[in-house]
């Protein structure tokens, strides 16, 4: 049998006394952690409850001419289910709004506790494309309502994916026509890659596939030579190495004449 000395008994008693505060501290910490966890769980459960913090308000911002608040509300209404402030994914809201025809970009964020803020950038219509769509400033096709346009736009035509090319050509040559007080009503790139221009005064220019800049310059020279007779011109065919074939309005003068620069 082991005999304990007085010093051993005293050491064990002091050891028990020293451990007591640590045990009490650990128990207190466990209680605090449990209480905090319970509060957090209750708070999150409350916030994620579909009956709590519903997104019920919308603020629409941006320099808008064609998109209305009603348009955005209808777009959001097509989402199967709009969640709460906590649960709703803003990417879903953004994709829904960006599906609107006139919307080029949408930035969507949530504002505590029940508001959706939507900032929109609209497409800028540069031209009517293939008769039933629009081109924006980058030559990208979008399905804005042509009837909503508040000003006349040039009519551009071309094969699929040729919008940027046709718009770029229009931008290059249009200022040159303006120097003669002419404007392009329509610019066409057909499936055979041949160019055609219809001017606002009704003259049709057949330019073919090659040497576009040179043929346009040749027309300018011819137009200046025609003077007052230009009003009688129906079309000008410039698909020649030199010169042009001029067609006249029937009531003015029948037939064609070849004009060399």
UniProtKB/TrEMBL annotation:
Subcellular location(s) of the protein: Cell inner membrane; Membrane
Native species: Vibrio navarrensis
Any one Pfam family match given in the protein's UniProt record, by short name: POTRA_1
Principal subcellular localization: membrane
Chain segments annotated as transmembrane: 23-48
Membrane topology according to the record: Single-pass type II membrane protein
Record's keyword terms, sorted: Cell cycle, Cell division, Cell inner membrane, Cell membrane, Membrane, Transmembrane, Transmembrane helix
Protein name, per record: Cell division protein FtsQ
Record carries keyword Electron transport: no
Encoding gene, per UniProt annotation: ftsQ
A GO cellular component annotation in the UniProt record: cell division site
Family: Belongs to the FtsQ/DivIB family. FtsQ subfamily.
